[in-house]
Amino acid sequence: MQTVSFIGDVREVVENARAAGRRIGFVPTMGALHAGHAALIRQAHEEGCFVIVSVFVNPAQFNDAGDLAAYPRTLTADEAVCREAGADLVFAPEVSEIYPAGFATQVTVDSPLTKAWEGHFRPGHFAGVTTVVAKLLLIAQCDRAFFGEKDWQQLAVVRQMVRDLAMGVAIVGSPTVRESDGLAMSSRNVRLSPEARKTAKIIPYLLDTAQDLLDSATPETQTDKGGVIAAWLRTLLESNAPDARLDYLAVVDPDTLVEVDEITNYAQVIIAVHIGGVRLIDNRKIVKRF
Ligand code: PAF
Fold this sequence. Notes:
By secondary structure, the protein is of the alpha/beta class. The chain has helices spanning 7-19, 35-46, 65-70, 75-85, 95-98, 112-115, 118-121, 125-140, 152-164, 194-199, 202-215, 226-240; strands at 2-4, 24-29, 50-55, 89-91, 144-148, 170-174, 245-252, 266-275, 278-287.
């Protein structure tokens, strides 16, 4: 495995890999790699791809300068994770390589998908994501790109962009990897104090409770309605974690992320909440069992 920081070097390596008959798999990351990223890299490797991992903390997708400054940068440890999981190439560019002087292009998905939820609470975030992902996909010239399902809305937005621009890349979503108590792996978890870390268990608990509520729905409780489930979960959060600050908690259509009321088949529960000053997001599918 080698690490490069220039676009030209990636192009050369990709050309050689293609000449050797390899399919290119790409895992875009912002570093601070954890078991969730390792699972994506391993999946790409096990599918037989030549695996490129980008490590780039993308300033364009942060709408809070403090959040950008506090983002962990751990390239040496990240390289070890990449090597162990089967990556072939790490692309770790400087900001000036991705956004050289005079850079003036923005790729935006202009639809309600990018305005709601994360889009509402983090204005400009998705434009930053789609711009950098479009550029990275062009650099990696990959056949398949792997994204974690923890960022459910991001995955939907990237799929839309790739579809609209006929980018010819298969977008592969991979299940969220969780800690033993259910908390979704995230680069932000290291910023949780021990107390906040304990409180954060409420998130997977709420998501699992959503399925329980759906399972136990009766005409009286109406807990097969998205709005009713969301209201129950908000009350549970308030009573179990009164200091948590909720951005959103909703039951939505998995593809459009529009809120659903009557759950006829399945839906996605999405949440973003600040616990101990750290913003955490998560989601899970809930299924109506007949
Ligand atoms: O999910 C992330 O880590 C980032 O949003 C991504 C896809 C690497 C783009 O910067």
